[in-house]
Q: What sequence folds into this?
């Protein structure tokens, strides 16, 4: 998950699937079906199917340290029309823990290849549209070629270029976030403790109502010793991504995509968002647009606007 430094200054903490201690506006439904896909190193990724099995297929994943169930305010708006297949990156969400030494972008890219084959095996072969945010968007851009085997890619705020366009600024940000992530609180007595921290954090001031509780519900699990809760994605895993991600941040060669691409960003004037390129030709080729008055977490802040812009692109391309 790409996060602004101010989040950590407000004692960031991160959230499991299960009832929250407080009334929650969002309750993620049980999937229609699930499937387990084994990776080459023995790690396992759990697939979940939601929505309309007869509709066009969307394949969705999430940002660093998060979980795709956290994005329910966004993907719930698509459930009536689309066949939704969700998966968490390794060491996130529903997935069991795996070796931290393999927790890196090249492994996420390799995992995706197994995931896409697993989706066809469990839920039937069908052309899919990849819908990815932040870290999962970076992984999608590192496929060779990006978008191979997909009908389209919709990438939400891929962390490639800061609005200043200075790559050294981005490198400094990742290093700082890596350090701060390792210092973050990792255990909580209740889920509400984390939800309260999220609500007090300025960087999350734009979250839609109820999302702070959903954050705690979807990114914490019961602690292994039976006392309280702990992060589903260990802070060492999240920090490891920050420490190495700069090597995989690059302006993509737009002629190399295997499918149409839409990039939707947060408002570049907020300071908590990214650009897909500093080249106007690249921005045009990537069909870039942004959602006003949102940040890097735009799908959790204005899900309706995000869905509307995504559907406009897919309908224009004749994909739905």
A:
């Amino acid at each position: 998950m790409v996060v602004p430094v101010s989040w950590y200054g407000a004692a960031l903490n991160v959230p499991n699937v299960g009832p929250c201690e407080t009334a929650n506006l969002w309750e993620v439904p049980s999937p229609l079906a699930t499937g387990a896909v084994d990776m080459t190193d023995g790690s396992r990724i759990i697939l979940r199917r939601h929505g309309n099995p007869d509709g066009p297929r969307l394949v969705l994943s999430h940002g660093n340290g998060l979980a795709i169930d956290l994005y329910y305010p966004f993907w719930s708006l698509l459930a009536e029309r689309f066949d939704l297949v969700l998966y968490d990156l390794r060491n996130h969400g529903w997935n069991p823990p795996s070796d931290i030494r393999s927790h890196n972008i090249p492994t996420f890219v390799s995992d995706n290849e197994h995931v896409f084959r697993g989706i066809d095996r469990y839920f039937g072969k069908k052309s899919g549209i990849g819908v990815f945010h932040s870290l999962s968007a970076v992984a999608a851009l590192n496929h060779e070629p990006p978008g191979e085997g997909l009908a389209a890619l919709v990438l939400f705020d891929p962390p490639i270029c800061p609005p200043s366009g200075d790559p050294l600024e981005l490198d400094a940000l990742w290093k700082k976030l890596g350090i701060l992530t390792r210092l973050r609180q990792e255990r909580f007595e209740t889920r509400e403790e984390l939800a309260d921290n999220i609500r007090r954090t300025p960087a999350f001031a734009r979250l839609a109502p109820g999302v702070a509780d959903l954050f705690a519900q979807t990114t914490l699990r019961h602690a292994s010793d039976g006392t309280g809760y702990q992060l589903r994605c260990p802070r060492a895993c999240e920090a490891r991504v920050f420490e190495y991600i700069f090597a995989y941040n690059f302006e993509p060669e737009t002629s190399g995509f295997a499918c149409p691409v839409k990039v939707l960003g947060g408002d570049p004037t907020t300071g908590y968002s990214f650009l897909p390129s500093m080249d106007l030709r690249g921005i045009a080729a990537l069909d870039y647009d942004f959602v006003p008055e949102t940040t890097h977490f735009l799908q959790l802040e204005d899900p309706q606007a995000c869905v509307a812009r995504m559907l406009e692109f897919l309908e224009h391309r004749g994909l739905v």
